[in-house]
UniProtKB/TrEMBL annotation:
Keywords: Signal. PANTHER family: SECRETION-REGULATING GUANINE NUCLEOTIDE EXCHANGE FACTOR (PTHR35128:SF1). This is Serine aminopeptidase S33 domain-containing protein. Residues 1-23 form the signal peptide. SUPFAM superfamilies: alpha/beta-Hydrolases. The lineage of its organism: Eukaryota, Viridiplantae, Chlorophyta, core chlorophytes, Chlorophyceae. It comes from the Eukaryota.
């Protein structure tokens, strides 16, 4: 019977979101898993020509997760050396410029001098985040807080010749989610702050001001969003048809019937090529993405799928990703503490969701063990580099920067063809 089956899917989606996010003080909303799962009728695998790739380690999914193979640290994180491309290149991100564009918070940066300008990428953050996460503090952006995955995305975009424009959602209190074009995705507006804004109009205004002023209007424009920002990005073609040359969507899907809705609006521009990056550990999200890919491909839209699997923590990983806040000594000591506490398995994989408070949570373990220099580390949820990286290693629901080059290469190929 259909009704019981739908009820079961909704319950399963809600349980998955709770388990994957339990322990966050804000319980980061993953409304796509909850809101859209009830629209699914049965799981599908999507079309076979949606190129699937696995990121996070050298081995394939079968080698790593089924055959108990080793999982050396990725080259993107630094391999076996304490210094990574990110830790050695942070100075290149000092050019992030903070702006209030007619009441809209934005941070942007053009590619370094001498790098050919290829395109522009608009970035939409996830819930409990903002545009200031994508650059480190600097004289031109003293408000910036610089989280590692966001920094790494920005760095790889700039080095490849992409100007980066990040915009904050209107909701700067509470969840800070985006107002989805599909409805929902943010808490009720606080009218003490003024009349309710429309997020997509705010983004359009920033692009209309910054791009022509900086001589970037003639370049292809792409969009990247994660979680709530991913849902927001998937809605942009409906309200700005023909403006974006490609979409990158991380850990999120769209309501079923997306392309049908777009074409019912009599949009003459084709739907842009769309790349999905998600974590199969969230099975409900994986099913939703499969449905999205199937629908888009049946409608003649180019798609690609990249899977992000769990990765092991290594002694050097956190300094490779979180330097200079986490130095080599702290990274090694932190690893030893978590290993001794049985928080990691024999291969270094996290045994527990880092958002949970199992055994007091990883923060409690570090405090009890007396990690040297703990007081100088940012540990608060959604503002902690260590928390973000542990979430990524667990691969339940987190932004992933290791797919950035794949995404940009695919965008470029899609535009040329």
């Amino acid at each position: 019977m259909r009704i019981p089956r739908l009820s079961f899917l909704i319950a399963a989606a809600m349980l998955a979101v709770f388990v994957l996010n339990f322990g966050s003080e804000h319980l980061r909303p993953v409304f796509g898993s909850i809101y859209y799962a009830r629209k699914l009728s049965k799981p599908t695998r999507g079309s076979s020509n949606a190129r699937r790739a696995v990121r996070g380690h050298f081995g394939t999914t079968d080698d790593e997760l089924l055959n108990d193979g080793s999982a050396p640290n990725s080259k993107a994180a630094g391999g076996i050396m304490p210094n990574s491309l990110l830790s050695k290149s942070l100075h290149l991100l000092s050019g992030g410029k903070y702006e209030d564009v007619e009441g809209v918070e934005a941070v942007w940066q053009a590619p370094p001098t001498g790098v050919l300008r290829r395109a522009v990428v608009f970035i939409a953050h996830g819930c409990n985040h903002g545009a200031i996460d994508w650059w480190p503090p600097s004289p031109s952006c003293p408000q910036c807080i610089g989280l590692p995955e966001e920094l790494n995305v920005t760095l790889h975009c700039l080095l490849r010749g992409y100007a980066v424009v990040a915009v904050s959602s209107a909701a700067r209190r509470g969840s800070r989610c985006w107002q989805s074009v599909f409805g929902g995705g943010s808490e009720p507006w606080d009218y003490s702050q003024g009349s309710s804004p429309v997020d997509w109009m705010r983004v359009r205004r920033v692009l209309d001001v910054v791009l022509p002023r900086e001589g970037l209007s003639s370049l292809p424009l792409f969009a990247l969003g994660a979680s709530s920002g991913g849902a927001f990005v998937l809605g942009l073609p409906l309200v700005m048809p023909g403006r974006f040359s490609g979409l990158g969507v991380q850990i999120m899907g769209a309501p079923l019937g997306l392309l049908q809705r777009y074409r019912m609006m009599n949009q003459s521009a084709p739907w842009p090529p769309t790349l999905f990056v998600h974590m199969p550990r969230d099975t409900n999200m994986a099913r939703l993405v499969a449905e999205n890919i199937r629908e888009l491909q049946e409608g003649g839209v180019r798609t690609r799928e990249i899977l992000v699997q769990p990765q092991p923590l290594t002694p050097l990983y956190l300094t490779q990703r979180c330097a200079p806040e986490v130095d080599e000594h702290t990274s090694r000591e932190l690893y030893d503490i978590l290993k001794a506490a049985d928080y990691l398995d024999a291969r270094g994989y996290l045994r527990f969701n880092p958002r949970s408070q199992h055994a007091g949570g990883w923060r409690g373990i570090l405090k009890e063990a007396g990690l040297a220099g703990l007081e100088r580390l940012r540990l608060q949820p959604d503002a902690s580099p260590i928390a973000e990286e542990l979430n990524l290693l667990y691969a339940g629901h987190e932004l992933c920067s290791e797919t950035t080059t794949d995404m940009l290469e695919w965008f470029e190929g899609a535009v040329v063809s």
